[in-house]
């Protein structure tokens, strides 16, 4: 591959394409389907495309929101949230919770989902989802560029203090990722794909 074969750009100068390729290249990305509750008891449920796990011990997950969203505000107030696994069966409901609605509107009701109580946090989980992580806030970090200028994006990190898993997806003591048919972000806005067992493969590390 030569330089003539490459499309090169510096993000500060624009990408020169029809659509920004950044989030299409960083794919797949797990969906941060986050439920939270504010200090007045209002419930929120929203999906975030910048989400992942960051640490084994303690188990830490996090999501980044562009602009200050209700989820970050709620979590800052109460110190708790829940991550819910988005699956193919729940794709339409997950998408419905992305709607911009008033702060006091319950997205569980908007999407026709059941709010199930958690064990250790005072935030409901999505009962229809096969996996949920109960989390307690560890940090909220406003992101910044290399020049120190603050970005309008906040990374919310939480320690997983309790886990709910549908036993149907545990075989011989091993959680079967593909059986749940999780959906992930596959690129630019609106692009998703489904993880299926037949598309998964294993490679043994050289060490």
UniProtKB/TrEMBL annotation:
Against InterPro entries, the record matches this protein to: Flavin_Rdtase-like_dom, Split_barrel_FMN-bd
Domain called Flavin reductase like: residue spans: 24-171
Molecular function (GO) terms for this protein are: FMN binding; oxidoreductase activity, acting on the CH-NH group of donors, NAD or NADP as acceptor
Protein name, as recorded? Flavin reductase family protein
Q: What is the species listed in this Swiss-Prot or TrEMBL entry?
A: Bradyrhizobium australiense
Q: Which residues form a coiled coil?
A: none
């Amino acid at each position: 591959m030569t330089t003539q074969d490459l499309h090169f750009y510096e993000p500060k100068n624009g990408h020169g394409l029809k659509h920004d390729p950044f989030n299409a290249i960083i794919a797949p990305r797990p969906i941060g389907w986050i439920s939270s509750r504010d200090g007045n008891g209002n419930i929120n449920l929203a999906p975030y495309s910048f989400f992942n796990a960051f640490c084994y011990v303690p188990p830490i997950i996090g999501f980044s929101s562009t602009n200050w969203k209700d989820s970050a505000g709620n979590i800052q107030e109460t110190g708790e949230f829940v991550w819910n696994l988005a699956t193919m069966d729940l794709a339409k409901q997950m998408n419905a919770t992305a709607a911009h609605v008033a702060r006091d509107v319950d997205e569980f009701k908007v999407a026709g989902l059941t709010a199930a109580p958690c064990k250790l946090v005072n935030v409901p989980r999505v009962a229809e989802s096969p996996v949920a992580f109960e989390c307690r806030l560890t940090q909220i970090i406003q992101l910044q560029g290399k020049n120190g200028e603050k970005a309008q994006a906040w990374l919310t990190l939480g320690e997983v203090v309790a886990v709910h898993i549908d036993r149907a997806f545990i075989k011989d003591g091993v959680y079967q990722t593909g059986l749940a048919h999780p959906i992930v972000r596959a690129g630019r806005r609106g692009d998703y794909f489904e993880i299926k067992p037949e598309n998964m493969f294993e490679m043994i590390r050289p060490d």
